[in-house]
Amino acid sequence: MSAGAGIAAAGPALLVFAYGLATALATGLGALPFAFVRRVSPRAVAFANAVAAGLMLGACFGLAAEGTRYGAWQTIAGANLGVVFILATQRWLGRREVTFGAAGGVEARRMMLIVVVMTVHSFAEGVAVGSAFGGGMELATAITIAIAVHNVPEGLAISAVLRPRGTSLAACAGWSVFSSLPQPLMAVPAFLFVEAFRPALPWGLGFAAGAMVFMVLVELLPEAYEDAPRPAIGLVATLTLVAMLLFQRYL
Amino acid sequence: MDLIPDDPTLTVLAYSALSAAAAALGAVLLAAFGRGGRRELPTAWSGWANALAAGMMFAAAYLLAESGLAGPPLPAALGAALGALFIFTTHAALGIARPPRARGRRADPSGGRKAVVISALHSACEGVAIGVAMAVDLRFGIFLALAIAVHNVPEATVLCGVLTGRGMRLPAATALAVAADATQVLGAVAAFALASAAPAALPWVQGFAVGALINLVLIELLPDSYREAGHTSIALVASVAMGIVVLLRGLAP
After folding, report:
1. Number of C-alpha atoms within 13 angstroms, CB side, residue B148?
2. Residues A246, B236: C-beta atoms closer than 8 Å
3. B170, exposed or middle or buried, with CB in 10 Å at 0-12, 13-18, 19+?
4. What interface predicted TM-score (ipTM) does this complex get?
5. Domain ranges (residues) in chain A
6. Nearest residue of A to residue B251 by CA position?
7. Domains of chain B: total
């Protein structure tokens, strides 16, 4: 698609943005289950970490499968960049005093990291949504609903890390929505310039998958193993992963 | 030389046996790098070996799940839940929920037997993965068998280290490690026969293998390795191993 045709599509572009924004708001719904949870023990935090790990690993399976369809080595190269990105972010956060709401130290670093990871992965998803819209506007509603519903467990993963560490429910929902804001922002240019963006797609999807796998391996799982019996952690994470895969298949 | 025998069952047998035999290489590594009279593996190395095995196994689960994308999702998901529950309950029933520590003078004496039982169960599940992959597509099955073969090497190194650390001689430990991995052949042939005879069972068995493999990684391989080496190095080794397997699959014919 040429730039001229892209400008002609400014009307639909606004629609893409509005749809993208709706999917971002849906992410906030992920905080909802935590309205019903009051006291949070270290054991509960461990299980929340296991749930977040399962959701993120399940999401990675989807991202990797999607990415390798566009290009296998680009996806893997992107995944390596994602791992390096998390390592660099960890170092950077480690060198300064971070606070996140009432939390500080290691806790705050972990909270910051999951928000950063989920936000960065939304960039890739935004590009995926925008490119998909390019396939025909009649599919737009179906895709939007699919992405919106798919965002809810992502909000759940974020809230599962933030809420047990003292973040308020509203702030959990707020950060969840924030993490999805790159979706409408990236969907519009990706929709307007599909041809230019498509080669970047496997890189972006791989980047997101690598960053998420690494985040799970380096932060969520080791912490989960410390405060709960590991067969139970393994079972919860595996079943969550399977549920996430099933969920993605039906949408 | 043709690497695929005419008879598919023979292919399953040959490649799952090859994969089990790879355990012997793990003993060679232990002989080369183990320290002291008891051939003990340095703690961090044991962690990295486990992380390497975990990453490859996780990649195998991913590839298996991806190969089932065309199939019906619900039976596969139910199969996966069954696989995870199977590992959970057998571990609890056999009293092997907590794998024995690799070293220490006060290591519990039944630890060696425990480690062999764990390894046999673990390998049987990997065999199911190989067998069902062969039923999906022979070439994919061969790729998966070779990946599991490589994965068996560091795993056998750790197992032999547990056994020699308790006073067993290396040749005996090697024989036990290979024997424990031989359950892979049984699992592979059984899964292949079932999935070929009853195509309706294929997504169930496929899901079962995925759920079992992921749960094994999360219960057996990762927790110990975090204790033996730093979080960052473990995560790096596991994710790079995962990436290499997925990449090789993408490049394979």
Report:
1. 34
2. no
3. middle
4. 0.89
5. 3-32+44-249
6. A72
7. 1
